[in-house]
leucine--tRNA ligase (Rhizoclosmatium globosum), 274 residues
Amino acid sequence: EGVGVQEYTGVKLQVLLDELINTPLESRDKVKDVPVGQYLTSPDVLAALKGKKLFMVAATLRPETMYGQTNCYVGVDLNYGIYQASATEAWICTERSAKNMSFQGLFGTRGELNKLGSLKGIDLIGVPLKAPLAQYPRIYTLPMEGVLATKGTGVVTSVPSDSPDDFITMQDLIKKSAYYNVQLKWVEPFMPPKPIIQTPNYGNLAAVAVVEQLKIQSQKDKDKLAQAKELVYKEGFYSGVILVGQFKGKPVQEAKPLIKDYLINEGLAFTYCE
Ligand code: A2H
């Protein structure tokens, strides 16, 4: 990155820990023979989390698209930590981003970091979440290949209607579910995506339209995906109109700060810079 500072919205997706706890290990779905959420519900972690809600925190440039969340992505081989954010909350993100957050005053005493646990992305696959503004009561944590440890929180919330990367990854996961160690029930019910933004050139599912137009086949078509991302981002930001929720009918440029403020005021998001 150059000299500029990138301002992200950190969005808090709550881990449905009680749901995991109430499902015995032997009844859970498995990821590579390991029950979903085994690490998060291990006795030591549960003891450290006592009295706290647990959130995955995703960094996004497009808070106005949160109505379209269908899942959350992590990198399976990336290292994540569970960090104490306050007396009542713990957040899952990379250590790099947790340090930045602490220095930005998001955790109370600036610069202090209280780590409650360490895990890999694969430990989070299949974990159910409650995502703010999403049109589903429960979405799932899924693997994505291009998640960078060096950007944002290492957690990406997925909006397949308006993000070509997110859409193509879901398509890959459906096509090769066994290879990616995912259950179809974590992906298929959320496809095709529901429209959340109307655009003049690419209709109301801009990411889907551009992925089809450029004939993008998989997550590995990196150059075409970069092109698609650029096209969809510009179209959505400059010409998009919100189709759902409290700010329905408003242009994206106008709705974006309003939706961000709404999420922050509800305690469901924060500003994060790097
Ligand atoms: B965006 P920039 Cl709807 N690795 O959020 C890879 N990608 C990451 C990431 C990481 N560690 N952290 C965040 N991102 C994604 C929504 C969205 C995003 C839409 C459309 C486009 C879009 C829903 N996913 O991004 O390199 C996040 O996905 C395209 C610009 O800092 C974040 O915003 O410019 C964006 O990339 C940040 O990318």
Q: What stands out?
A: The mean pLDDT is 97. The chain has one domain: 7-194+261-273. The CA atoms of residues 70 and 189 lie 9 Å apart.
